[in-house]
Amino acid sequence: MAIKIVVVGSAQLPAGDDFPPLKAAKYSWDQYPAMTGENIVERCWRADIVVALITAIELTTREKMPRFKLLIVAAEAARHLDQEVVQENGVELLIFPAAQCKGAVEAEVLCKRISQAIDQYIRNYENKGVSP
């Protein structure tokens, strides 16, 4: 099964910056420049991994996102996150609280760190013989 990754708030990235390819065999990226609370379930309901760069992710609709296992938040999205609610809903959490996307170099570093974290997350599951 392919890993589905959804990036919320990709408009925060300077033009031309993007996430490096993953080492995983099967995956897909969907990137949305901006979303509101109403759009998140609609766009993320099949996501295994959600990356939030600015939009806060509310988990009140967790039951509508059955595959959702990992939330990666950075910068502004980290400030509006209730970590306890995330963990109570069985979602793993990775936070880059000081990350910024204001300049091309900062954004490139953040994208690389997020891709590396996703690769590590997938490897951990593969080593256990299960899919994320």
Q: How would you characterize the overall build of this protein?
A:
This protein is α/β, with parallel strands linked by helices. It has helices at residues 37-44, 76-79, 83-88, 104-127; strands at 3-8, 27-32, 49-52, 70-74, 92-96. The chain is 32% helix and 20% strand. Strands 2-1-3-4-5 form a 5-stranded parallel beta sheet, with helices on both faces. It has a single domain (3-127), classed as 3-Layer(aba) Sandwich (Rossmann fold).
Characteristics:
132 residues; alpha/beta; five-stranded parallel sheet; 20% strand
Tell me what portion of residues adopts beta-strand conformation.
15-25%
CATH architecture: 3-Layer(aba) Sandwich
- Counting structural domains, the number is 1
Instruction: Write out the strand line-up for the largest beta sheet, numbering strands in chain order.
Output: 2-1-3-4-5
- Shape call: globular
Question: How would you state the average pLDDT, rounded?
Answer: 81
| CA radius of gyration | 14 Å
How widely separated are the two ends? Answer: 9 Å
Q: What is the structural class? A: alpha/beta
Low-confidence stretches: none
Biggest β-sheet strands, sense, barrel: 5 strands, parallel
Can you count the helices? 4
- Name the CATH homologous superfamily: NAD(P)-binding Rossmann-like Domain
- Summarize the helix and strand pattern as letters: EEHEEHHEH
Q: How helix-rich are the residues, as a percent range?
A: 25-40%
- The CATH topology annotation reads as Rossmann fold
CATH class membership: Alpha Beta
Number of strands: 5
